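S2.1 Query sequence (4-hydroxybenzoate polyprenyltransferase-like prenyltransferase)
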Amino acid sequence: MKNILALIRPHQWVKNLIVMLPIFFSGQLFNISVLISGFIAFFSFSFAASSIYCLNDIIDVEEDRRHPVKCKRPLASGAVSIAQGYVLIITMLALSMLTLLFLPSGHAKTYGVIGFYWLLNIGYCLKFKQYAIIDVCIVAFGFVLRVLAGGWATNIVLSKWIVLMTFLLMLFLAFAKRRDDVVRMMETGRPTRQNTIRYNLEFINQAITITSSITLVCYIMYTVSEETIAHFHTQYLYLTSIFVLVGILRYIQLAVVDQKSGDPTKVMLKDRFMQIIVLLFGLSFLFIIYFL
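Output structure tokens follow.
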């Protein structure tokens, strides 16, 4: 059972909480019916993502066996058979689709976006991840699809800001993750994936700088836009930009100084500084829109 759980990666489900962003930014965080729909979308997306994790490990099994860390994965180590991996792919996908039946409304569009996510990631696993830049764009777009699923499942109309900020932030994180691959390639002389040779530290560092800067500017523009001020009836949301800036700087520090950006999920689960910043951002945002 331990190896099965390692293959479907439930610890990675935390990234699917992105589907709850429409609820958070719409000010409906305390609406129980909306929250229930959001969590249904969360579990559905998590099951679909686990299906993709299994497929990715099957495709990369030989490459993972040569990797110093990934060689310990269930399929690469032989703890789980390839046949069992295919069974898990079908099981997780079926659970994803069945979970959506509990949605009170918004079934069709949510089915569509999760189905598109699944097909897109099949393409990613089979071919697209071999191409530098395209690979990180697809990863970032996958999170946009999570936001879309959350919006449609809860019948919340998404603003252009949340879609744009999600893509930019996840593109920044994806480049930071690729930096870890480049550093490992420089240390071992062997690329951890085929497209790593199309990246180098100079390019990655510039890409991280560009995407982080645009993300911050986009967030500030969102907080001071007339649309946002009218929606939340407050002009003080710009104050939360402080936490966004500090959070981005902390992540760059982890990536460039500590070289710990290989797994963004583990960074968020283990780095106390990042956890405090995210908590303070969330609390300040909620305080401003509900009490000011």
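The mean pLDDT is 90. The CA atoms of residues 182 and 200 lie 6 Å apart.
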